Each structure stands twice: as structure tokens, then as C-alpha cells.
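Subject: mismatched residue count in predicted assembly?

I count 371 residues in my input, but I want to confirm that the predicted structure covers every chain. Input:
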Amino acid sequence: MYKVAAIGGDGIGPEIIAEGKRVLDAAGDRFNFSLDWTDFDIGAERYLATSQLLTEDDLKELGKFGAIYFGAIGDDRVKPGILEKGILLALRFHFDQYVNLRPIKLLDGVATPLANKIPKDIDFVVVRENTEDFYVGIGSRFRKSQKIELSVLRELYSVKFGLDIESDAEEIAYQIGVISREGARRVIAYAFDLAQRRRKKLTSVDKANVLSDIYGMWREVFTDVAQSYPAVSTEFNFVDAVTMWFVKNPEWFDVVVTPNMFGDIITDLGAMIQGGLGLAPGGNINPKGTSMFEPIHGSAPKYKGMGVANPIATIWAGSLLLEHVGEREAAAAVLRAIERSIRDGVLTRDMGGHYRTDQVGEYIAQSVRKG
Ligand code: IPM
Ligand code: MG
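Triage response: the counts match. Full output below for your records.
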């Protein structure tokens, strides 16, 4: 038995998590394990009612689980950034989920916008660092009468524009990216391990030609870690170039490892080449702690409760969850069942089908049961 926490969250989140649970329960029946779900009421509704994002108590309770199944957060009534930072990023950081694992795989029967590419051409994994870089939240804005703590900024801007920050028109803002040697090492090592189990090719994506301190160190660490994996071939790509290669030659990639912000950006591109955000799952992994599995799309508030949301990304995230807890066969069976629903055209309308969210979930659950 596996104890799993579930956070439906906002918008379409609860509907898609319900379908995910249905499919994972079916996988349990078929492969002889059971899932013991505990639901957490976290999200916009509670925030609006109580001003609470994540409580000490939430974190303490969630910390008792090895896995969290997460729907989506985001609500039109809350200013952008509050829920994202206060819930999603807070969970990733609190549980030190330093690997953001995002498979980019074109499933059988799915249309990709890339001409002449077929499933065997689009099958790689992005390992996004998930706790550092520009996401550390160190930054500030300075206006009239606010003291500039970073004297280097004051000097730079007084030379450049003659700014003395005496009026609000002269505001400046900054945000800092941070990488630690250990933070880079652990995620790069994870990516090498993964590449070793796959096609043995690892691409590091950075911008070391311009941001040479932060990503220069990233490259140094990558080169150090590579020594322990002689069987894995490696290459460096700059992030601007990699967006070009994802589109032109996705078949070149096996595992891609990248700092947090570039990982955020290139995985939306990855989602599109695998058929859209409705098909893109992610895992936030702490190999020794509490990990969290989620679709990478958001909460789509305007579709809330309409039964039109595509549950596939969430069900696929559930497959990643099963793999994470060690149920490899069940994880593969869930993915096969997703492929069957695609092949059989049992799809929501974003994929050209006419089925409801729960009908797609039920169909996939039945296919898992049949094996
Ligand atoms: C993602 C999202 C998040 C991120 C947002 C919602 C904070 O874009 O999971 O990719 O930037 O990581
Ligand atoms: Mg993103």
C-alpha cells in the first residue's frame, strides 16, 4: 500500500486529479497494490476565505508522504504570482524537490506541429533544476528615498544614466540568479544516471557565453560529474540554440539537463512538440524525500467544472508517480492505456474528440484493468 497526498487545487485541478486517481486505482487493482489517498484542501478558495497559502500544519502533514499528486493552482480572483509562489514553488522548495523531470515524448497517434516527425523522433527527457537559479527570490526594487543596498547597482546606474533615484521615474529593479556547486552537482548527477539507463546521451543547456559566472560554474560541475560516467556522451548547447534544435532535430536529444529558468521555458516548447500542454506531465523529485507529480499546464479557470478538461497530462503524471514509487510495470501500463485512448479517439475536444473528462478517465482506467 502506498500513502499518497492529493491536492486538486484550483480551476480544472480537482476534475483532472479525480480522473488520475481513478486510473491509478485501476492500476493498483491490476498489479496488486493499493493507494491510500489523503486529500488536502489547498488553493485559491481557502486563500480567499482565510488568507492562508500553505500552513505549517499543511507542510508537516504533507511531509509524512513520499508522493503528492498535484492538480493545478491559479485563479482569476487572485493576483498572478501569489498562488504560484506561495503554493507551487513553496512546495517545490520546502521539500527540496530539486529535480523537475519532464518527459517530451510524442505518443502514438498524436499530431505534432513539426512536419515529418514521428514518435521515434521525439522521445527525450528534460531534467530541470528546480530549486535555484533565478527562482531563489532574491531581488528588489528601488525608488526615491529607498536606500540602494547594492552599491554596485548605484554606481552602474549613476554612471550610465546619471541616476540618483531622486524621483520615482528613476526606479531600478534587480533579481539575482544563484547556483551552488552542490545544487548543480546533484541534479546533473541525476541526469547522468537517467541518461545511463536510456540512450546514453546528455545535453547541458545554459547561457555560459553571456552569464559566465553562474553558468560557467554549472559547466565546470557538469564536466566534473561527467568523469564518473564515461559511457554517456555529452554536449553543451546554449539555450537560444537549443530552441532551434528542439524544433529542427528533436531526435538528437536523449536527456537534457538545465538550470531552472531555461528549463521552465524550453519545457513549454517541448510540450508543444509532443502535441500540446494537455499531454505534458512533470515530476518534482526529491529522491530521498517528498516528491510531487503534476501536469505542467495550469488551472484553466474558465473551463472549471465543465467536464471538458483533458485529463491525460495528469494521468501521465500519475504514471511518473507510479514509476517513482517503484511500480514500473503499472507505470508502463498506464502510458499504454493513454496511447490506446488516443488510438481509439476517446479524447477531449482540445484533441479533436467529443468525450468528457470523466469519460476519458474511465476509458483509460478500463484499459489499464484489461492490460
Ligand atoms: C511550471 C510553471 C511554474 C514555473 C509557475 C506556475 C510558477 O510555469 O511549472 O513550469 O515557473 O515553474
Ligand atoms: Mg512553466
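The first strand starts at residue 2 and ends at 9. Marking this ticket as 'not a bug'.
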